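hiii so um. not sure if this is the right channel but i have a protein structure encoded as C-alpha coordinates and i wanna go backwards to a sequence. like what aa goes where. can anyone help
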Protein backbone atom coordinates (compact mmCIF):
# COMPACT_ATOMS: atom_id res chain seq x y z
CA UNK A 1 0.00 0.00 0.00
CA UNK A 2 1.36 3.39 -1.00
CA UNK A 3 2.21 5.76 1.87
CA UNK A 4 1.19 9.43 1.74
CA UNK A 5 1.68 12.33 4.15
CA UNK A 6 -0.97 15.06 4.20
CA UNK A 7 -0.88 18.46 5.91
CA UNK A 8 -4.14 20.42 6.04
CA UNK A 9 -5.37 23.80 7.23
CA UNK A 10 -8.43 25.99 7.07
CA UNK A 11 -8.88 29.73 7.43
CA UNK A 12 -11.72 32.19 7.66
CA UNK A 13 -11.93 35.99 7.46
CA UNK A 14 -14.60 36.49 10.09
CA UNK A 15 -16.34 33.45 11.48
CA UNK A 16 -18.56 33.07 9.58
CA UNK A 17 -17.17 34.82 6.55
CA UNK A 18 -15.15 34.07 3.43
CA UNK A 19 -13.02 31.01 4.01
CA UNK A 20 -10.27 28.97 2.46
CA UNK A 21 -8.71 25.56 2.83
CA UNK A 22 -5.32 24.23 1.88
CA UNK A 23 -3.64 20.85 1.77
CA UNK A 24 -0.23 19.53 0.92
CA UNK A 25 -0.13 15.90 -0.26
CA UNK A 26 3.35 14.39 -0.16
CA UNK A 27 4.14 11.06 -1.79
CA UNK A 28 7.23 9.54 -3.38
CA UNK A 29 9.09 12.85 -3.21
CA UNK A 30 6.30 14.76 -4.96
CA UNK A 31 4.23 17.52 -3.33
CA UNK A 32 0.72 18.31 -4.59
CA UNK A 33 -0.80 21.58 -3.39
CA UNK A 34 -4.58 21.74 -3.16
CA UNK A 35 -6.74 24.69 -2.15
CA UNK A 36 -10.18 26.19 -2.47
CA UNK A 37 -12.60 28.48 -0.75
CA UNK A 38 -16.19 29.46 -0.03
CA UNK A 39 -17.84 32.86 0.21
CA UNK A 40 -19.64 32.31 3.52
CA UNK A 41 -18.40 29.60 5.83
CA UNK A 42 -16.71 28.91 9.16
CA UNK A 43 -13.17 28.03 10.10
CA UNK A 44 -14.22 24.56 11.29
CA UNK A 45 -15.92 23.83 7.95
CA UNK A 46 -12.74 24.85 6.12
CA UNK A 47 -10.59 22.66 8.39
CA UNK A 48 -12.81 19.66 7.63
CA UNK A 49 -13.01 20.48 3.93
CA UNK A 50 -9.20 20.54 3.66
CA UNK A 51 -9.00 17.01 5.05
CA UNK A 52 -11.84 15.72 2.87
CA UNK A 53 -10.45 17.24 -0.34
CA UNK A 54 -6.96 15.90 0.36
CA UNK A 55 -8.27 12.36 0.93
CA UNK A 56 -10.50 12.63 -2.16
CA UNK A 57 -7.40 13.58 -4.17
CA UNK A 58 -5.87 10.14 -3.61
CA UNK A 59 -6.61 7.90 -6.63
CA UNK A 60 -6.21 4.64 -4.69
CA UNK A 61 -6.34 3.31 -1.14
CA UNK A 62 -3.30 4.52 0.74
CA UNK A 63 -1.64 4.45 4.11
CA UNK A 64 -2.00 8.08 5.18
CA UNK A 65 -0.24 10.03 7.90
CA UNK A 66 -2.43 13.10 8.21
CA UNK A 67 -1.40 16.24 10.09
CA UNK A 68 -3.84 18.95 11.13
CA UNK A 69 -3.42 21.90 13.46
CA UNK A 70 -7.13 21.72 14.26
CA UNK A 71 -7.95 20.09 17.60
CA UNK A 72 -11.58 20.16 16.40
CA UNK A 73 -10.76 17.86 13.47
CA UNK A 74 -8.34 15.60 15.37
CA UNK A 75 -10.55 15.16 18.44
CA UNK A 76 -13.69 14.96 16.35
CA UNK A 77 -12.51 12.09 14.20
CA UNK A 78 -10.58 10.20 16.88
CA UNK A 79 -12.78 10.71 19.97
CA UNK A 80 -16.10 12.51 19.59
CA UNK A 81 -17.52 11.03 16.39
CA UNK A 82 -18.13 7.61 17.96
CA UNK A 83 -20.42 9.10 20.62
CA UNK A 84 -22.09 11.40 18.10
CA UNK A 85 -23.08 8.41 15.98
CA UNK A 86 -24.18 6.40 19.01
CA UNK A 87 -26.29 9.38 20.21
CA UNK A 88 -28.01 10.04 16.87
CA UNK A 89 -25.67 12.87 15.89
CA UNK A 90 -26.24 14.85 19.05
CA UNK A 91 -23.38 16.31 21.07
CA UNK A 92 -22.94 16.05 24.84
CA UNK A 93 -25.36 18.98 25.29
CA UNK A 94 -28.03 17.03 23.35
CA UNK A 95 -27.78 19.52 20.46
CA UNK A 96 -27.34 18.55 16.79
CA UNK A 97 -23.68 18.12 15.85
CA UNK A 98 -22.46 21.02 13.72
CA UNK A 99 -21.08 20.18 10.27
CA UNK A 100 -22.67 16.73 10.26
CA UNK A 101 -22.63 16.70 6.45
CA UNK A 102 -18.84 17.08 6.43
CA UNK A 103 -18.29 14.58 9.25
CA UNK A 104 -20.33 12.00 7.30
CA UNK A 105 -18.30 12.65 4.15
CA UNK A 106 -15.08 12.41 6.14
CA UNK A 107 -16.14 9.03 7.54
CA UNK A 108 -16.96 7.80 4.05
CA UNK A 109 -13.76 8.95 2.36
CA UNK A 110 -11.40 8.05 5.23
CA UNK A 111 -12.77 4.48 5.27
CA UNK A 112 -11.05 3.95 1.90
CA UNK A 113 -7.64 4.53 3.48
CA UNK A 114 -5.65 3.60 6.57
CA UNK A 115 -5.31 6.98 8.29
CA UNK A 116 -3.09 7.93 11.21
CA UNK A 117 -4.48 11.19 12.64
CA UNK A 118 -1.93 13.63 14.06
CA UNK A 119 -2.16 17.07 15.59
CA UNK A 120 0.64 19.52 14.82
CA UNK A 121 1.04 22.91 16.49
CA UNK A 122 0.13 25.65 14.03
CA UNK A 123 2.46 28.56 13.29
CA UNK A 124 5.35 26.75 14.92
CA UNK A 125 7.76 26.54 11.99
CA UNK A 126 6.71 23.22 10.41
CA UNK A 127 7.21 24.09 6.75
CA UNK A 128 4.47 21.79 5.49
CA UNK A 129 1.90 23.09 7.99
CA UNK A 130 2.95 26.65 7.18
CA UNK A 131 2.44 25.98 3.46
CA UNK A 132 -1.04 24.53 4.05
CA UNK A 133 -1.82 27.67 6.08
CA UNK A 134 -0.60 29.92 3.24
CA UNK A 135 -2.76 28.05 0.72
CA UNK A 136 -5.83 28.37 2.95
CA UNK A 137 -5.32 32.06 3.68
CA UNK A 138 -4.78 32.86 0.00
CA UNK A 139 -8.30 31.58 -0.73
CA UNK A 140 -10.14 33.32 2.10
CA UNK A 141 -10.19 36.84 0.82
CA UNK A 142 -13.26 38.95 1.56
CA UNK A 143 -15.15 40.10 -1.49
CA UNK A 144 -14.52 43.73 -2.50
CA UNK A 145 -17.08 46.22 -1.16
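sure thing!! here u go:
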Amino acid sequence: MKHVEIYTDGACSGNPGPGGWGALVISEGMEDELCGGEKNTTNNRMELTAVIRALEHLPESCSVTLYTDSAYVKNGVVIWIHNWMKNGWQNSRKEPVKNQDLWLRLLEISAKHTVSWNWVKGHAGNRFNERADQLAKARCKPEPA
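oh and The first strand starts at residue 3 and ends at 12.
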